[in-house]
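Figure-free illustration: sequence to structure, shown twice.
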Amino acid sequence: MISIIVPVYNEERTLSKAFADLQRLSGEAELIFVDGGSIDGSPELCEKLGKLYRSEKGRAQQMNKGACLAEGDILLFLHADSIISPEALSSIEGSVKSGALTGGCLTQRLDSDALIYRFIENFGNIRARFTAIFYGDQGIFVTKEAFSLLGGFPETPIMEDVIFSKRLRKSGRTRVLEDKIIVSSRRWQAEGVLKACARYTLVNILYRLGVPLQKIKNLCNDLR
């Protein structure tokens, strides 16, 4: 069984929009929401869709809490503004159960029709296939056994997905599946595509240079 873990913080509008899609998934998998202290109607919506737990705010902390309480032997980490099909769950389960994969992610598709987003998503998918480093909005999946052996996501202020997937690729075979994950382009649109690209590039450069993660996070917040 797959357990889908969704970290949530003030996502009432997003959850309302995706309610029907999430409801379909709840019939195919264990759906777990971990709220980081929302002050809107997110918790009430989560309880209608699946299991609701609470933790300290922090994506890594919230995902680790959900993973710890999950009953499935495969974990899929999904952002609240991302959508996948039940067929994608079947592909994940089939790839893992056959012994072919320890983990991986899905093929990203941004939900805007603007041409620039085709470039962004294609670049991200190619990068993931060549480096086996997966970002959180690509729908990271992993066996629960491997997740436990790796110690879960490092509870860092930023880059927890990158650090985890670097460890994951050393523990077994990983792959980017062809199944799509539809990702909201809201953050790109709110910040501006060029500014967002520049910020993401800067984050990766600073990370490679060994700059402390808290300093990188603080700088990112200042740039927004």
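We now fold a second protein in the same way, so the two outputs can be compared directly.
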Amino acid sequence: MITATPISTLQNSGTLSVHLLGTVDYLAAMALQRQMVVEIADRQDHSGKLLICEHPPTLTVGCEGSRRQFLVDDDELQANLIDVHWVNRGGGCLLHAPGQLAVYPILPLKRIGLGMSRYHRLLEQVVSQVCAEFKTPTHAPKDQKGNRQPGLCVRNGQFAFVGTAVQSWVSHHGLFVNICPDLHLQRFIANPQPHTPVTSLAASRHRKTSMHAVRESLVRHLAHQLGYERYHLHTGHPQLIRTRKKVLLHA
């Protein structure tokens, strides 16, 4: 079990700007991240940014993914309004949908004293702390050989996934946490770990789980672990260009 003991000794003088975007098309969120990466790379302080949103049903394929993970053909994906994007983050193929929190920290990792390995552990630690507040224990996923894999599991499967990238020592992409998505959509792709089903926090708790409450807890713990004494919440972002997109939800 992953405990809630803090692992971070970071003390940052900068400010973390948190932008709550609601449901936003995947490519629009990526475009905003790219702008923020350039902005943070050009600064010299410890300030960072955090985007939190949900996406319409979308498949993304990271550097370790392949089309072999698709369980349906392109025609069925198109019929179900599922977009597919090949991206430069770590990890394999992931399904995004409303009810999943997409968490994108844009951070000057080198300036705040974080290497990639420790950064990944920090993201997982934050999710573990959030789950502890909801009285839900977590543990690390393992492959068929027993090797530890990125992300976190609850008792009935994996619900949190880590897929990060770094440019000029500024982080982007990030963390995806299933709170209450339509798990029926998972049928489109193979599970990241073949012997471990994909689940959600709500399914593990057998009760409704507030997206707002999880989001608040996640922001609070992430700011603390990163050493930010100050963080400011914003609704939306002036440079976000939204697109109109239908969202497919199953009853």
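Summary for the second example: The longest helix spans residues 116-133.
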